[in-house]
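I am writing to request your help with a piece of structural work I have in hand. The matter concerns a single protein, recorded as an amino acid sequence and a row of C-alpha cells. Could you please explain, in whatever detail you think fit, how the C-alpha cells follow from the sequence? Thank you for your consideration; the sequence and its C-alpha cells are set out here:
>
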Amino acid sequence: MKKILIIASLALCCSLLASCEDFLDTKKYGAKTDWETQEDVEKALVALFSFNTNDAEGVTGRGITWFECCSDVSFNCFLDVLNSLALGCPSNFEGDYVSSNVLSIESSSLANFVKQDLLNNYTDETIGDALDFLTLDNEKLKEIDGKSYDYLPFGNTKNRLNRLELKPIINDDGQFVYSPICMGLLKERWVRGLAERFLPAKLAFPSLNKVMESWKHLYEKALESDVQDCFLKAGFLRKHVYRGVDLCKKGDHPQYLGDYDGLAYDPVTETVWVIECKEFEKIESAFDYMQLQQRWFGKEGKLLKYERRIKYLQEHLVEVAADLGFNHTGKLRIRAYLVSNKLFMNVLGQSNFQVITLSELGSLLE
C-alpha cells in the first residue's frame, strides 16, 4: 500500500508540473543582498542568466552563487544531476521500474550511477548534497520557514520548498523513488524560472530573490521609457510627454504623491494620460493569486498610491495643466492606465484605471 501511495504521488506531481503553464509567458557575494552601485547591480543581473563560471573578470556566475549561498548546493551540479536522472537511466536499472514512469533504486547505487554518468566531474559530497536537496523531507511536509501548520498548505507554492514538485525524490527506507519525467520538468522549471524571474520557492532563496526584485525595478524603469517612446511615436509633442515627473517640483503640490511614471497630453482632445508601470509576478496556485490580489489591490495594496495620484489629478487638473504647460479650453479629461507585463484584473473591488500591456497602449494611441 505504501508503494502504491508513493507511485500515485509521483504521478500526481508529474501531472501538476506538466499542466502548469503559468511559468511558460569568482568573487563571491555570499549572503549579501544589496549592492553599492548601479553598475554592480547591472553586472549581477547579467551574471544571473549565465551558467559559465570561468569568466576572466569573475563577474559571471554570481547569480549561481546566490542559489548556492541559500541552498549550499552547487547549481551546476544540481542541473546536471537533474539531467542525469531525467535522461541517463542505464539498462541494468530497467528492472527497478515500479511503474511505467517511476523508478525505485537503492540510494548508494543511485549516487554511484550519477557520479559515473557525470564522468566524475563532481565529488561524492557535491553529488550527495544535490541528491539531498532533491529529496522530500517527509517529517516537514506541513512546515514553511520553520512554522508548522495543522494542514498541508499545498496552495502556498511560492514559499513552500519542501513539496513534491521541487523535491521529487522520496526516500522509502533507503530506496530512492522518483520519476524521470519529473526530473526533466523540474530542471526546465528552474532554468525558465530564473530567466523569467519566477523562483520556485522565493522564501527559501532570499539572496536570489533580492536580485529578482532589483531586476524588477530596472524592468519597470525600462517600461517607463518604452511608454514614453510609445507616445512620441504616436505623434505627441515631446514637451507634452513626461516620464517620472514629480509634481511638487513643478508647482505647489504635496510631496507625498510621489512621481507619476508617465504623463502625456493630447491638446486636440484635451486628454491627460496618466500612466503607471508595474511588473506583476507570476503565480502557480489560487492561493498565490489571491495573495497577489491583496498585495496590489487590497486595503493596504501597493496601488493605493497610484489611486491617490489619480484622485489628486482629478481634483487639481487645471492647476497641474498650468504647471506643465498644457494649453486647453476648459474641457480637460483624464485617461488612467496601468501598463504591465501581463493582464491582471482587480477582483477585490473597483479601480480608477485599466490594466493593459504595452502593445495595447500602442493600439489605443493609433
Observations:
- Residues 270 and 332 are 5 Å apart (CA to CA).
- The two ends are 64 Å apart (CA to CA).
